[in-house]
Amino acid sequence: VPDAVQAVERVIHATLGASRPEDDIFGEEMGTDSNTIGSRPGRQWIIDPIDGTAGFLRGLPIWGTLVALAIDGVPVVGAISAPALGQQWFGATGLGSWSTTSGSREEVPLQVSEVGAVADATVSYNSIGQWVADGRQEALLALTGAAWRTRALGDFWPYMLVAEGSLDMAGEPDLQPYDMAAIQPIVEGAGGRFSSLDGENSVWTGSALATNGLIHDEVLSLAKRNQP
């Protein structure tokens, strides 16, 4: 797995470096001088060469390559390729989002759902352990108790299901910027909303929440950390 991850990142890094030599590149494996938590001024490409390495190792198909372009620390363009699923997603904030399937040139527009309440929503939280470790055990119980249906899908895929309208919310703590940067523009381009679990419009704070927008504030109120 480390060999595969590094090989993918080297190819992307070399391609971007050749075509955009003035841009900063921040990769999970190779890093840069900006490999710190915090936004960077100007243009910055953020790469996760293989998101979902645990699934990749075990033969699960939910893994992919994530590439984003951030301007002044805010991701504005995202592209995700999932070879084992045979699907790609790409989008830009304010311009729209689309998906394609391997072997087809058809670009399918993405649109989030119109579910207006958590009580009617299908939500994905990834891992119970993540929420407990982040002091959100009670928040997870409140959220999953309020939702119509719950799922524990992981990595990038549930966020793409939000963009497609199949899920109404996906979120989790314990993430890095390269886990989230490509997701934000795709979700927002599909009409959804992206923030941290604390409501910050940032991929630099360690958590993610993507919704159809209509239930975002309600989810934020349920997802607050446990009170002392």
Question: What does this protein structure show overall?
Answer:
It is a single chain. The protein is 29% helix and 28% strand. It is globular, with a radius of gyration of 17 Å. The chain has eight helices and twelve strands. The model has no long low-confidence stretch (mean pLDDT 92). Helix 5 runs parallel beside helix 7 (183-189). The strands form two sheets. The chain has a seven-stranded mixed β-sheet. It starts with a helix and ends in a 6-residue tail after the last helix. It is α+β, with helices and mostly antiparallel strands and 228 residues long. It has helices spanning 2-19, 53-58, 128-133, 137-146, 157-164, 177-180, 183-189, 216-222; strands spanning 24-27, 43-51, 64-71, 74-82, 87-92, 96-101, 108-109, 122-124, 149-151, 169-173, 193-195, 207-211. The longest helix is centred in the N-terminal third of the chain and has 18 residues, at 2-19.
